[in-house]
Amino acid sequence: MSYRTGADILTVLQQYEVKVNEFDKAMRLNLYGWDGAPLNPMYLAYKPPQMLPTVTLNPTTSAPTKGSQPASTGKTKRSLAGDEDGLVEEALNRNALSKRKETVKADRIWWFGVGMTALGAPNVSILDSG
After folding, report:
1. Contact 98, 44 (CB under 8 A)
2. Do the beta carbons of residue 31 and residue 13 sit within 8 Å?
3. Measuring CA to CA, which residue among 16, 50, 14 is closest to residue 31?
4. Residue pair 95/51 in contact by the 8 Å Cβ criterion
5. Count of CB atoms within 10 A of residue 93's CB?
6. Which of 69, 83, 95, 96 is the least buried, fewest Cβ under 10 Å from its Cβ?
7. Averaged over 47-71, what is the pLDDT?
8. How far is residue 102 from each of residues 95, 99, 105, 108, 112, measured CA to CA in Å?
9. Number of other CB atoms surrounding residue 40 within 10 Å
10. SS (H, E, C) the chain
11. What 3 state SS string does 67-102 have?
12. CB 99 within 8 A of CB 93
């Protein structure tokens, strides 16, 4: 495995820019490759930035000994009310700068389509017969 030094990174990236996106006011990092071609922009989604998990995602209650079964099989029911330790898991996007909002309900779109089909079917048959 080889690691890049600071001089190697300068040859891979020609320049960078830190700007505020005009549309949603999010911090944006623009990178340019060795030939000056722009790379995909990166946006700051969390403030302060969050990296990959730093704790074990699925901890077991005890480490299995040689020849024994693991303590947790992974088939236990999950709940938001908390487990036997009284710990409650928080949402992963709790510190996000912008959260998605559901503006249109899918069931309303479905029933609108059913209604339009029901209204349109007799009209098509009338137009075909005349």
Report:
1. no
2. yes
3. 16
4. no
5. 13
6. 69
7. 68
8. 19, 10, 7, 13, 18
9. 7
10. CCCCCHHHHHHHEEEEEEEECCCCCCEEEEEEECCCCECCCEECCECCCCCCCCCCCCCCCCCCCCCCCCCCCCCCCCCCCCCCCCCCCCCCCCCECCCCCCCCCHHHHHHHHHHHHHHHHHHHHHHHHC
11. CCCCCCCCCCCCCCCCCCCCCCCCCCCCCECCCCCC
12. yes
Count of positions (residues) in the chain: 130
Task: Give the tens place of pLDDT for each residue, 74-127.
Answer: 565 555 555 555 556 667 777 777 767 777 788 889 999 999 998 887 877 777
Please name the amino acid found at residue 53.
P
